[in-house]
Write a structure and sequence with these properties.
Blueprint (H helix, E strand, L loop, with lengths): L9 H22 L5 H5 L12 H14 L12 E3 H13 L15 H10 L8 E3 L1 E5 L3 E4 L19 E5 L4 E7 L5 E5 L4 E5 L3 E4 L1 H4 L7 E3 L3 E5 L7 E6 L3 E4 L10 E8 L5 E8 L5 E3 L6 H9 L7
């Protein structure tokens, strides 16, 4: 009682109490040994030994591409795609999401809504053989089973959005296979799957320009790395995720110098333009791929500790 009677603004007092309530568990969690990569690395024998060589990695990647039908090697994709294949992919995606779906308020979607989504897919407008358009993702975009932002749940209580596949992030190469009737969505092939994404998230260009990667590329090894428009890093540009590849614009001169890279942006007509951008000199990036060792696997995994799925 005497502490509550002190001449202290209640908001400050309550704020301090809440801070203590949240801060103590957080510090305790961070101090737990099992939440440190070193705890696990120390348990390994020869953690720096190579799991697979570069040649073996390439063989493994080829086996995965051959085995998983919806994945693709973007650099070896053909210039055209047959319409019956596109129709099959689109129709399968639609059938996997029947009308027994509920919206965010728990109401069942009416048949009219499902019909509108199906109509917008433009199944009757698929060309017999269409030229593939290549592009680069310039802003984060959801990859979805159907061309709609509306979530679809399997029960009235919500849960997972069944038509949300994943998301695409800046610098990713994509291939446009078909457009929605309203011109707002594209059915894209990415390196890992096919799905619908809003066209506004992609800048299109010539295939050679889209796939341009040099031998001295940077790999983003942090969970998230910020990108800036200026060398003083005062003007935020974008953010890239772990695994993204970046082309350096010249050599880094010293430890205190920021990384200078080429970054994708949309031109006045939506075309792909590579502009100069900057990363902090302390940015979590690596020149070339990391060696495939168990130590590196553990270190990379722990950089995502605590992130939501």
């Amino acid at each position: 009682t005497k502490y509550l009677n002190l001449d202290i603004p209640k908001k400050i007092l309550l704020g301090a109490l809440f801070l203590l309530l949240f801060l103590i568990p957080a510090l305790s969690y961070a101090a737990t040994p099992i939440n440190s990569p070193s705890f696990w690395i120390k348990k390994l024998k020869n953690p720096d030994d190579s799991v697979l060589s570069m040649d073996e990695i390439e063989t493994l990647n080829s086996m995965i591409l051959d085995d998983v039908e919806h994945m693709a090697d973007m650099e070896s994709m053909p210039e055209t795609v047959f319409g019956d294949r596109v129709f099959e992919w689109l129709w399968t995606g639609f059938l996997l999401n029947p009308v027994e779906r509920y919206d965010s308020s728990g109401k069942k979607y009416p048949e009219e809504f499902i019909d509108e989504v199906a109509y917008n897919m433009g199944l009757d407008a698929i060309a017999e053989e269409a030229e593939i358009r290549f592009g680069v993702v310039v802003s984060r975009g959801d990859i979805r089973a159907l061309p709609t932002d509306e979530p679809m749940y399997t029960s009235r209580r919500g849960g997972f959005d069944t038509i949300q596949y994943t998301s695409a992030h800046p610098t990713e190469s994509v291939a446009l296979l078909h457009e929605s009737r309203d011109g707002e969505w594209g059915f894209f092939q990415t390196s890992t799957l096919r799905g619908w994404m809003r066209l506004e998230n992609v800048a299109f260009g010539e295939r050679a320009d889209v796939m341009a990667v040099t031998d001295d590329f940077l790999v983003v090894t942090g969970s998230h790395v910020k990108v800036y428009r200026d060398s003083a890093m005062k003007e935020p540009f974008s953010e890239v995720k772990m695994g993204a590849l970046l082309r350096p614009d010249g050599q880094k001169k010293g430890e205190g110098e920021p990384w200078k890279v080429f970054f994708p942006e949309k031109g006045p007509s939506g075309e792909l333009v590579w502009v100069q951008a900057y990363l902090s000199p302390k940015a979590d990036v690596n020149v070339g791929y990391l060696p495939y060792t168990r130590k590196n696997i553990i270190r990379q995994a722990f950089k995502m500790l605590g992130e939501e799925y």
